[in-house]
Design brief:
It contains 18 helices and 13 strands. It is α/β, with parallel strands linked by helices. The chain folds into 2 domains: 8-167 and 361-376, Rossmann fold, CATH 3.40.50.2000; 179-358, Rossmann fold, CATH 3.40.50. The strands form 2 sheets. A 7-stranded parallel beta sheet has the order 3-2-1-4-5-6-7, sandwiched between helices. A 6-stranded parallel beta sheet has the order 10-9-8-11-12-13, sandwiched between helices. Strand 1 (8-13), helix 1 and strand 2 form a beta-alpha-beta unit. Helix 3 runs parallel beside helix 4 and helix 10 packs across helix 11 (237-243). The chain is globular and about 60 Å long.
């Protein structure tokens, strides 16, 4: 615990995973710096920390380079609000969590005003190229990275500003019940195979992925599987039904308890993102789905080529989890991919152990907070 007097922080988390990781970081910061004043963009996790929410994380929800264009007006309003906050309630530091497409613009505005920027969870420059690393070196005071190989990548351009802190999921993954207890709690059979669907935390990906997921679920139910749909906190039931053609969902909907359900599941079908890494670490084999506008997809392929995009595959350096992209996101291919995972369960179990070893030791949020407190002193 450090007595730094009155300190003010402007905090921006751009989506559900950033809100989750940001919540752990804020709680650790509040423990280390009692009385710190925090305001910014966040969701339920940051709101539960008692910070002043200036804009809800749902306002920034967008996926893909092209899809973001449709939300530019909302992003502009939030940016103006943040600039007003910097000018009229000058923070001692601006903290940005992930969401680089928007947060890099926030960082530039803070840099113009001479406000130091702390960036937590770096953009995936190993996928998108080194240009972003050079830009960050110029405008970010301190960067907390979550993979050990990221530190030398970001520090290779003249300034030692990146620090490896470990992955926050190591601390955040909390399984509180046995597989049997979880299934009984949700009215699920102990004997039937369980499939978990996670269509994402952003409307665009839900709209593009959910129909194929539900069609695959209907096929698997005929084969004796039981299926549940895990709802992200940023998505309402009504939108899920809208994405299903306005019809009632054909599978039970669960809000919350994600870690226990993934631990209790035999397989999953999951939108690309942090949830794929969570599922892997919890021992749930799964199929990773991507579907963007075609222009977004073509731009992405020009930048990263044919390499894997799923986080577990990127970290492991091998295609362990099937990735279905664009027109390949069909019910039949999802079902075939799940059967392939079943046949390779032993390889999956071995790879999970490799993945866990790569994620680093517990305490990422504490180490990130240590770096942040260093900027507040």
């Amino acid at each position: 615990m450090v007595d730094l007097g009155r300190r003010r922080v402007l905090f921006v988390a751009g989506e559900a995973s950033g809100d989750l990781h940001g919540g752990f970081l804020v709680r650790e910061l509040q423990r280390q710096v009692p009385g710190v004043e925090i305001a910014g963009v966040g969701g339920d996790q940051l709101r539960a920390c008692g910070i002043d929410i200036l804009a809800d994380v749902r306002v920034l929800s967008a996926v893909g380079l092209v899809e973001i264009i449709g939300s530019l007006r909302r992003h502009h309003r939030v940016m103006e609000l943040l600039k007003h906050q910097m000018d009229n309630h000058r923070p001692d530091v601006v903290v940005l969590v992930d969401y680089p497409g928007f947060n890099m613009f926030v960082a530039k505005e803070a840099k113009k005003r001479g406000i130091p920027v702390f960036f937590y969870i770096a953009p995936q420059v190993w996928a998108w190229g080194q240009g972003r690393a050079k830009k960050m070196e110029r405008i970010i005071e301190r960067l907390a990275v979550i993979f050990p190989f990221e530190e030398p990548i970001f520090n290779a351009h003249g300034r030692d500003f990146a620090r490896y802190v470990g992955h926050p999921l190591v601390d955040e993954l909390q399984v509180s019940c046995s597989r049997e207890q979880t299934r009984l709690r949700h009215g699920l059979s102990l004997e039937q195979s369980l499939l978990v669907l996670m269509p994402g935390s952003r409307r665009a990906e839900v709209r593009m992925l959910l129909p194929a997921m539900l069609k695959a679920a209907n096929q698997l139910k005929l084969d004796g599987w039981q299926v549940v749909l895990l709802k992200a906190p940023t998505i309402d039931r009504s939108y899920l039904e809208q994405a299903n053609g306005g019809e009632a969902l054909p599978v039970p909907l669960v809000d919350g308890d994600a870690h226990n359900l993934l631990h209790a599941a035999d397989a999953g079908v999951i939108a690309s993102g942090t949830a794929t890494l969570e599922a892997a670490l919890l021992g749930c084999p799964h199929v990773i789905l991507y579907r963007f506008s075609w222009l977004t997809y073509l731009i992405a392929r020009l930048v990263i080529g044919q390499r894997s995009m799923g986080l577990p595959n990127v970290i492991l350096g091998k295609q362990l989890f099937p990735e279905l992209v664009q027109r390949h996101v069909t019910a039949d291919k999802i079902v075939r991919s799940l059967h392939s995972l079943e046949r390779n369960r032993a390889l999956f179990n071995q790879s999970v152990q490799e993945l866990q070893a790569t994620m680093g030791p517990p305490g990422a949020s504490r180490r990130a907070a240590d770096e942040l407190v260093g900027l507040l002193k």
